[in-house]
Prior knowledge:
Layout: E1 8-17, E2 20-30, E3 35-40, H1 46-54, E4 60-68, E5 71-72, H2 78-84, E6 86-89, E7 96-100, H3 101-115, H4 123-136, E8 147-148, H5 154-168, E9 172-176, H6 184-199, E10 203-207, H7 211-217, E11 221-226, E12 229-234, H8 236-245
Parallel strand pairs: 3-10, 3-11, 6-9, 9-10
Antiparallel strand pairs: 1-2, 1-4, 4-5, 7-8, 11-12
Helix pairs in contact: 4-5, 5-6
Pfam families: ABC_tran (PF00005)
Keywords: ATP-binding, Cell membrane, Membrane, Nucleotide-binding
Protein name: Fe-S cluster assembly ATPase SufC
Amino acid sequence: xxxxxxxxxxxxxxxxxxxxxxxxxxxxxxxxxxxxxxxxxxxxxxxxxxxxxxxxxxxxxxxxxxxxxxxxxxxxxxxxxxxxxxxxxxxxxxxxxxxxxxxxxxxxxxxxxxxxxxxxxxxxxxxxxxxxxxxxxxxxxxxxxxxxxxxxxxxxxxxxxxxxxxxxxxxxxxxxxxxxxxxxxxxxxxxxxxxxxxxxxxxxxxxxxxxxxxxxxxxxxxxxxxxxxxxxxxxxxxxxxxxxxxxxxxxx
Length: 252
């Protein structure tokens, strides 16, 4: 892959939740179309990184910087980070009772399109695109008319996240254990979607410990977080070593 200016540059990011510092100092560069796999024991800060970059109000950045195409995400409200091209797939996607799935996604998509200087999609054109996207993910079109994630299984919630991803076309997507709750076909759909979007320039940070999926994703880099810092950097060999011996090997 040709080295270019990173689409996302994170420098010495320090994040607190309440009075507890979870991320001590994290730095990384994400190139357009690249894929980084993030691994680490429970509590090491993987989900915290995603929440902090997305602008969750409970995650306070106390030091450092995160530049997305030159814009400092830390200085932007959450909705502006999404409009700038950052996407977070939640580890446990919440339900939003009373809000129709198709209205929710179309509103988000049109906000992003507006920020890009594109014309908004009307309900008809959006529904055609959404149905095509849902079909490719093995997601029944009827789910578009239901409240967001209400009554959805774990796998259905993850597919709904993937539908948002494919329609929003972000610059950088952080997928937090996207394989959790998915069956074999669902994991295959993840790999195919990520490969297709990488070819179009979207960069990915994928939190996962599922070695088979990691190998299928063919990451450019594998990072191990430990106690709020990047403790190791490598390639697939690092992921295979962690899968074989666990995280305790680093402290042995």
